[in-house]
Amino acid sequence: MRAGAGDAKPTAHAPRTAVAGISGFAGGELARLLLRHPKLDSTSPQFYSRAGETDGGKPGDLADLHPQLSAIRPESSKVFPFNWDRISDAGIELLYLATPHEQSREWVSNAIGRGIKVIDLSGAWRLQYPVNRNVYHFTDSDPQLAAKMQAEAIYGCPELHRDEIRTARLIANPGCYATSIILALAPLVQSGLVDLDCGIVCDAKSGVSGAGKAATSKTHFMYAADNLSAYSVFGHRHTGELLEQLNLTSDQIQFTPHLLPIPRGILSTIYLRFTRPVQSMDVTTIFREFYKYSPMVRLRDTPNLPNIQHVVRTNFCDLGFELSRDGKKLVVVSCLDNLLKGAAGQAVQNMNVMYGWEESEGLL
Amino acid sequence: MRAGAGDAKPTAHAPRTAVAGISGFAGGELARLLLRHPKLDSTSPQFYSRAGETDGGKPGDLADLHPQLSAIRPESSKVFPFNWDRISDAGIELLYLATPHEQSREWVSNAIGRGIKVIDLSGAWRLQYPVNRNVYHFTDSDPQLAAKMQAEAIYGCPELHRDEIRTARLIANPGCYATSIILALAPLVQSGLVDLDCGIVCDAKSGVSGAGKAATSKTHFMYAADNLSAYSVFGHRHTGELLEQLNLTSDQIQFTPHLLPIPRGILSTIYLRFTRPVQSMDVTTIFREFYKYSPMVRLRDTPNLPNIQHVVRTNFCDLGFELSRDGKKLVVVSCLDNLLKGAAGQAVQNMNVMYGWEESEGLL
Amino acid sequence: MRAGAGDAKPTAHAPRTAVAGISGFAGGELARLLLRHPKLDSTSPQFYSRAGETDGGKPGDLADLHPQLSAIRPESSKVFPFNWDRISDAGIELLYLATPHEQSREWVSNAIGRGIKVIDLSGAWRLQYPVNRNVYHFTDSDPQLAAKMQAEAIYGCPELHRDEIRTARLIANPGCYATSIILALAPLVQSGLVDLDCGIVCDAKSGVSGAGKAATSKTHFMYAADNLSAYSVFGHRHTGELLEQLNLTSDQIQFTPHLLPIPRGILSTIYLRFTRPVQSMDVTTIFREFYKYSPMVRLRDTPNLPNIQHVVRTNFCDLGFELSRDGKKLVVVSCLDNLLKGAAGQAVQNMNVMYGWEESEGLL
Amino acid sequence: MRAGAGDAKPTAHAPRTAVAGISGFAGGELARLLLRHPKLDSTSPQFYSRAGETDGGKPGDLADLHPQLSAIRPESSKVFPFNWDRISDAGIELLYLATPHEQSREWVSNAIGRGIKVIDLSGAWRLQYPVNRNVYHFTDSDPQLAAKMQAEAIYGCPELHRDEIRTARLIANPGCYATSIILALAPLVQSGLVDLDCGIVCDAKSGVSGAGKAATSKTHFMYAADNLSAYSVFGHRHTGELLEQLNLTSDQIQFTPHLLPIPRGILSTIYLRFTRPVQSMDVTTIFREFYKYSPMVRLRDTPNLPNIQHVVRTNFCDLGFELSRDGKKLVVVSCLDNLLKGAAGQAVQNMNVMYGWEESEGLL
Fold first, then answer.
1. What ipTM goes with this model?
2. Interface contact flag, D221 C217, Cβ < 8 Å
C-alpha cells in the first residue's frame, strides 16, 4: 500500500490550471498557493465561482472574496462564472473542484470527457464501497457513468498512493480528519503489531474553519468561542475513509470529532494497544521507514509531541507518540492544518506528484 | 440632571414580573438575574417568547434556549408564547421587553393601557427628538399614541435620572455603548471644563454578543476571532443617545464602535481637552461627587485603569482616567459588561429603583 | 461506594471560616462564593495570604488580587498575612487551604490539632496509597503524624462519599480532571458492565486556568491561544485519583490531558466497551439512579451532549453519552468548570454537606 | 520627505546575511522570510543567538526555538552563539539585529567598523532628538561614537525615506505602532489640511506578540484572553517616532495603545479635523499620490475599511477612511501585522531597497 519514491520524469510545460468554487476557505487557500506556485506560469490559475456566486454572469474579483489576497498578482485576480465552454476555450488541463459534494459528483465526468484532469476537494469520490458512501446520499443521474468514474478515482493521499496518483485522471482529495488519522495509523496497522480486538480510539479536534463558511448557530462566535463540544459521535462522514484506507472494520476503530475554539488546525489523539510489548525505538523505526520518501510528514522525537501551532499554515502533518512503560499501550498525536494538508495543500501536493515535480514544491 | 439619593419608600409586595422575548443573549441574562433576585417571589418571573419562537403555541423550556440555566429553578422554567390575555390573567405588573425595536414600539401602549409598567431593552423609546430617532425608521400605526408614550418614556440610566425612574411607567433601557460613554462623560461635561470646540472622541470596542444571536458573516467565528474591525463610523444608532443625554451637538462628540474578538464586554477610550489646565485631584473629585450615591459605578484610582475582565459578568461600570502632564488633555477609560450594565443588569437596576429597593439588589 | 441522601441535621450557627492562599484562581473563586454564601454571616470569610504574598506583614486588599471582587463587600476585603495565632484568635472553625501541595501537607496537622476543620484544595491528601502519592514527592517532617492525618482524610467528592464528609475533619478536595472522569465513570464501573480488559480511554481537555496563575512559557498567550496540545501522557498526577476512587488498575484506564485555548472549563471524552450489548435506556437508568440525590450532576438527554459553555461559571457536572448501534461501545462526555466543580465550588459543596445545609446552597 | 521611485541598479551578488537574536517572535519571522527569500543564496542567512541563549557555546537548532520552521531548509538550521570573529570569518555583509535595545545600541559601531551594514529592529537608533530618546535611558560607553552612529541612522520606513535607505549603513527599523500611525498620517499632515490645533487622536490596538516572548502577568493567557486594556497612556515609547517623523509637537498628536486578545496584528483608529471641508475624493487622491510607488501600502475603497485579518501574515499596511458628512472630520483606519510590516517584514523590505531589488521581493 505504501508508495515508493519512484522516478517520474518532470513534464516539460506548466499545465493550465483552474479552480472552480473559489469562495470557501479551502478555495481561498488554494488560490493563494497556486498564485505563488513556482511551476505555474502567468496564465495559471484561473478562478471560477460556484453557481450563483457572481453577480449576473459578470466576473467578480478575488479580493472581494478573500481580501487578504488583494494586490498580490492583480492580473490573476478575476473570478469568472463557471462555464464549460470557457474552461475549454482557456485550454484548462487541470481543474480543481472546491465545490459542494453533489456538484463535484455531477461535474467530474464532463471534465474527464474533455480530457481535463480533476483534483476534487469534496467528499464525492473518496469512498469506493457503497455501504460507506451512503452517508452522502448521492443520486447520480447516470449511475453507470458514475460507477466508471468512481472506479478511476484515486484517493489522493500521496504518502499512501503516490504511484497511482502519478497517472490518475481523477484525484479524490482526502478529508481533513481522515488525513490526520490515516497518516498516524497506516504505518502501525501495516506493521501487524496493533491489537485490533480492543479497537483503536481516535479523539480528534478541529478548528472552526472545518465547519465551513456558512453562518450557522454552530459557527457563531458566541457558540464556538470559549467552548469545546463533541459531535457526530459514531457517525462522522470521514469514518468510511478510515475503514477503506486502513482496511479496518467499524468495530476496530472509532472516531469522535470535536469543535475547537480556534480558526484552523486539527489535533488527533489516537489510542491503541499492541499485541505484544514493543520498545519506543521500534515505533520510531516503523514511522521513519514508512515515511522516508515523504517530505510532508515530520516525526517529532519522543517525548516531544506536536501541537497545532507547529503545523498551522504549513502543509506538514506532524506525528509524535508516547509509549506506556510496559510497552503495550501507545498514544499517537497527529497534527495538521485542516485547510492545507487537510485540503488545499494536499491538493497541490497531489498536483506536484501528477506532474513529476518535487512533492513539496510551492508548499514550504 | 444628576439624580440624588432621595428617600423612596420600599413597596410592600413583590411585583409579578414577566419577560417577553427570552431567546436572545440579553433575555437569557435577564432570566438568570430575575430567577435569583431576592425581592421576587416564586411566582416571578414568567417567560414569554417572541412571535414564532415556540412551536405551535406550546410552551417551550427555558433550558432549551439557555442550557446553562437548566436545573436552577425547574418550576420556573417554562417559556410561553406571548399573549396579552395570558399576561393579564397572570396579573403581571412589570413587563420586561427584550424584543426587537419595532415590536417594542408597537407593544408598549397596550401594556401601559393595561396598567402594566414596562422596562424596554430595545432602542424603541430612547430618543426624544425625531431627528435622532429617524435612524430606526419606525412607522407608528398610531402616531399620536406613540408620541404620548414617547413623552412618558424615561431614559433608564439611574445614575442620571433616578428620581424620574422611581415614578415612571415606561423605562427606555439605554444602549450598551451609550451607557459606557455617558457615564464617563456626564460628570465632566456638566463640570463645564471640557473644551467642546475641539470635540470629544469616543473610541469604543465591544464583544461579539453585542452583535446579537443571529448567525451572520460578521458573527461567524472565522470573521470575529483573531480580528478587530471598526464599523458604523459616524453612523451608529447609539450616537443620538449621547447627544440627548449629554446635551451635545454632533460636532462636539464623535463615536466609533469596533468589534472585539471576545464574547462580552465594552471598553470605551474617551479623549477630551479642558478649557484650562486642571489637576488630577480635580477630576477625581468631579467623578466622586457625581457618583456618591451610585453603587454601580466604580472609580479606579489613577494610574490604574479598568479593563474588561474587571467588569465582565458584573453590573458595574468601571471608570479610570489619565491626565496629560500639562493638565489639558484627558483620557477616560470606561468598562462595562454589555449584557449586564449595558442591558439586562441595568434593567434590573431600574426595577430596583422603581420599587424602592437597594439599587444593587440582586446585582452583586 | 455511592452516598445516600441521609438525614443530617442542620447546625444551628454559621461557622467562622477562613481561606488561606487567596491569590490563585481557585482562591479568588472561593472568595467570591463565600462572600455571598447565604449561610455565612458577616464575620465570614476571612482571607489569608500564602507566605510572601503580602507586603511586610501588612494586610493587603482582596481587590488588588482580584479586581473584579472590589466593592462587593468592602468590610470583608482585607487579606492578612497567614498566622496561626490570628487564626485561633479569630475563632476560625473551618479553614480552606488553597495553598501549594507542600504547604497543605505541612499545615494540616496544626489546624486539626487546634480543632479546626480543613478543606484542602491541593493534592496533598487525596491519595491513600504511597505508590500513587509518590508523584508528589512529599517529604513529611513527621511521617507518623502525616500518616495519621492521611488516614483521616476523606476524598471530597460528595456524590461518592457524602456520609463520610458529614463527619470529616479533613477533606481532600478532588482534582479537576479527576472529578470530571470519576463522575462519568463511577456509575458505569459499579454496574459491572464495563469490559475492563480493553481498558477505558479518557481524553480530557482543560482551559488554561487549570495550569495556574504562574506566568510560564505554557501559559503565555502566544503559546496557549490558537493552539491545542497534549501533555503528561501516561503521567498526570490525577491518575492516582482515578485508580483509587474507581478501584481500577493502570492497565484498565488511561487518561491524557490537553491544554485548551480557553480560560476555564474541562471536557472529558471517555471511551469504553461493555461486556455485553446494552440499550441506551439502561445507561440512562444507571446514571439517574446513581445521582438521584445529587443536585450538582445533570444528565443531558441523548443525543444532546454537554459542552463547556453549559457548565462554565456553575458548579454543575454535566454528563451525556452516545451508544454505538450494536450497544457495545459507549462514549461519555463529561463537562465541568475546573475552578468550580473542579475546585472552589466543590469545596463549598463539601462545606454544605459538613454543616447539613442544602448541598447546592450558595452554588446556583 | 516622501521617497520617489528612483532608479537604483540591482546589485550583482547576494549579500551574506546574518540575524543576531533569533529567539524572539520577530527573530522567528525574520528567519522564515530570509530562508525563502529568492535573492539570497544557500549561504544565507546565518543565525546567531543573543548572549546566554545557547547552551555553553554549542550551536543550537532553529527548530528548537521555532518548531514550525523545522524541516524547511535543514542545512540552514543551526543557531550559533554570537561572536564577532565568526561573523567576520563568515564574510557577513548585512547583519540584522533582533536584540534588546541596549545590546543593539552597543553592538552597532562594531559592525559598522567592520564594514557590515546593519538593520536594527530595536528602538536603539530610531530617535534623533535626546528629548525623545530619553525614554530608553541609554548609557552609551562612548557617547561620541554613539552620536556619530546616531547621525548616520536612517529611519527605515521605505515609504518615507526610500532614497536615504538605498545608501544607508545603519537602518533603524521602525516601531510597530509607529509604522501603522505614520503611514496613515504622513500624507495627510504633509497636505497641510489637518487642523493641528485640536490635535490628532490615535487609538491603537495590538495583538499580544507585540508584548514580547517573556512570560509575564500581562502576557498570561488568563489576563490577555477575553480582555482589552489600555496602557502607557501619554507615555508609550513609540510616541517620539510619531513626533519626529510627522514633525509634530506632543500637543498636536496623542496616542493610546491597547492590548488585544489576539496573537498578532495592529489596528489604529485615527481621528483628525480638517481646517476646511474636503471631499472624499480629495482624501483618496492624497493617499494614492503619496503611495503611488509603494507596493506594500494598500488603500481600501471607501466605505470599506481594513481589518486585522486582511493584513495578518502579510507585509501590507492597509489604509481606509471615513469622512464626516460635513467634510470636516476624518477617521482613518490603519492595519498591519506587527511582526511583519511592523518588524521583520519591514526589515526585509529595507534590505530589498538597499540592494536595489523589487521592494516586495520575498514578501508577497
1. 0.94
2. no
